[in-house]
Amino acid sequence: MQKLILDRVSCHVTAKCNLKCKKCSAYIPELYMLHTPLPDYTLDQMKNSFRIYFEIVSHVRMISLSGGEPFMFDELDKLVEFILNYDDRFDKLEIFTNGTIPVPERLLSICRANRKTCFLVDHYGPAVSKRIDTIEASLKDAGITYQIRKYFGADAHMGGWHDYGISGKKASEDVAKFRFEKCYAGKNGNMLCTIFGTNIFLCPMSEVGRRIGSIPLNDTIHMDLCDDSTSSEEKQIKLLAMNNIVVNPACAYCNGIGVYENEPRYMPGVQLQ
Questions:
Q1: Which contacts qualify for 227-234: CB closer than 8 Å, 24 or more apart?
Q2: Mean pLDDT over residues 15-39, rounded?
Q3: What is the model's pTM?
Q4: CA separation for the pair 70, 80 (Å, rounded)
Q5: Does domain 5-253 have CATH number 2.30.30?
């Protein structure tokens, strides 16, 4: 197989969340409103996905673990521990959290021993992110790199949140191509391939939209990393092809981010009733 070097990959470790944020980019409140079982991704599924990913990818700059709220995945420490077995194959492992749950002790111990880990702690204000001080103190004491992103007030990070506008209404292929070329999660951002269980999607928003019934599966570009009927060579060819496409059909259902000038921004972390 050829040497394949990619910029980034993310993993959606859980759809569980203890917040119900308006304009949530993962559309978690919409998932809960379906009143159906939440998508459930197991540790074994994600471990197998990363094992196969590193069979076909020589190096990736950034790995991101997100959700939902990642700390609500009970085996997050074991997943991080597994990924760190490949720490010569990536530059940075970042873990997102919403500032409401203290960092689990074993996760702290694992990350303390590896300087490639980093925590991105979103702060939605003292009324929502009530454990910010506890989280910051534990990360600081452990010597772990972290960033607190202030998502409240007039100087909110990035000016606030963005609305992806996912709906069942399909735009033209020309519009989809324009969005794909401009979007930070698309071509303009070196792609944000994301693992959901055993599948890797070219864009996380395509699976986010599919889960709430707004984007047909046939209009998503994805691959089953754990498909035993496909060789590693074939999977590498398909992943390379995914990263070289000219248009993602799922973009016809999603506004993307950074696509349009003067996109409105919204106050982050506003809780729905």
A1: 227/198, 232/1, 232/52, 232/55, 232/56, 233/1
A2: 96
A3: 0.96
A4: 11
A5: no
